[in-house]
Amino acid sequence: RPTKDNRRIPLSIFNSRRNMLYLGSGHIFNEIAVDWILYTVMPMWAFINNYKSKHGLEPEYDEIPLDFRNMSFVVPATFQQQVPGLTIIGAAKWKEVIKRATERMPDWKPLLGRVFTPGFVSNLAKSLGQHRMLLAPDFADGTGVATKIMKGLEEGIPVMVNAGAATGYNCDNYTCKHVIMPKPPRNATDKHEQAYEFVMLLRHVYFDSKHLIKVLQNGKEFVKTR
Questions:
Q1: How do strand 20-23 and strand 86-89 relate by DSSP bridges?
Q2: What ranges make up the beta strands (E) of the chain?
């Protein structure tokens, strides 16, 4: 008989979840990750939406200019607002980080207005259960995200990582079943292509509720083996 922990979440319940989530203190490595999500991931997602509406196809990574955030490439508000919102939990300083991002990217206010910073929350499990995905990229050595990844897996939220965050999670050859991880870029040192692979996968899996439910279920099973 299924236990409470391994019952599959009904599709209708999961579909009530909204937005992406980032969890972290004000540590410098968390700030680097948040900056990457704000300055690269979310704007690139909006740029791809805009590109596809014009050309009917998604762009290859080399069709996205390195300076796509500049005024000549500004994406209309309609496409900025199509990007799911992001909630950042865990530190009071995130409000200041968002303010700084808005000052640096004034033409992206419709996008950055979809970022929410409640600070600390009294019921973390409840907050995790209200979001569709937990983003957990890491640009240090992988140790800084271990706690948040395990917490996400335990609480049943699909977790998306980059290669730096996958250390210790049995993600050999990029074939994880319990976390979501993009394929490696052709050029391992090309940060633009790394971001492109992350964003393209994120855009596709975010709206695939059946796949996300399967991933979170695998995540719960993975936690039991630790």
A1: parallel
A2: 20-23, 86-89, 115-119, 133-135, 159-160
151: CB partners within 8 A, 6+ apart: 23, 124, 128
* Average pLDDT value for the chain: 87
pLDDT in tens, 28-49: 888 999 999 999 999 999 999 9
Low-confidence ranges of the chain (pLDDT < 70): 1-7, 71-73, 141-145, 166-175
Distance CA 192, CA 199 (A): 11
Q: What is the pLDDT of residues 147-169, one digit of tens each?
A: 888 899 999 999 999 877 766 66
How far apart CA 155 and CA 112 sit, in angstroms, is: 27
Q: Which residues, 6 or more positions from 158, have their beta carbon under 8 angstroms from its beta carbon?
A: 132, 133, 134, 152, 179, 180, 205, 212, 215, 216, 219
**Residue 7 CB partners (closer than 8 Å, separation 6+):** none
What is the C-alpha to C-alpha distance for residues 46 and 79, in angstroms, rounded to an integer? 6
